[in-house]
Amino acid sequence: MKIQFLTKATLSLVLVGSLSILNAQSLSNGVKIQTLSGDTKLSCEALLCLASPIKPSECAPSLARYFGISAKKWKDTITKRKNFLKLCPVDNSDSQMVYYRDQVVANLDSECTIPTLNKRVEKQVVRLEKVCAVVSDNGGCATFKEINIYGFRTNPNLPRSCALLASSAYTDYRLKYTCNKQFYDEASWNRGYELKEVSKNIYFTLKESEREQGSKLIPISRSEFYKLPPNERKITYNASGFSQYNKIVEVFYQKILIKKDCWIND
Question: Which of 19, 64, 195, 244 is the most exposed place for a label (fewest CB within 10 A)?
């Protein structure tokens, strides 16, 4: 039987067309394609599928087979996976191909896809805030406690598997983070947008989907406070434990959408 080398032009026909939308550019130089079946076929498919951030449904059997290989110790898992990958007829004179197979793919602990990267949320303490834990008899704050205020963002750091794949010339991983890396408060992150205060006039020029109304506290004197109806006033406590009298006022906001699909393959 004649041995055929996979080329860029024939990559779309690899493995009887089952992986027709893969585009692992350089991998084609190192894999010899014959009439494959069983684990040999799955081994080659795993190498090809893992070289691209695009995973067609046809990749499912080979990836399930590959990531299903495990042992009690991670080093033994790597050895078993290497042995599986070596079933694929690869040109061992190609050092980059061998590196991709033995050092990159064999050491992956998970797949790397754009949707998965964009679902990884980083949570970090951005500041401490003092809140009143116990109110004193005179209306002040007897005891404060500090609470962590967290910020959230799509994680800009690549997990190990993605970093390995991106380091190889035999893959199509050209991963790029397109967001500004800022952290957003929990309320904004959960609802998917920030609130920017605007004037009433600007508010009514916005699209309905961009508008939101709310309220905020404005410090006032004690005498002014007690002239207001109960639903328009609120007492808070400052860092020294003293009461702060506030007026509740209506506020107009513009919704600023938070971009969460930060990772792309450039």
Answer: 64
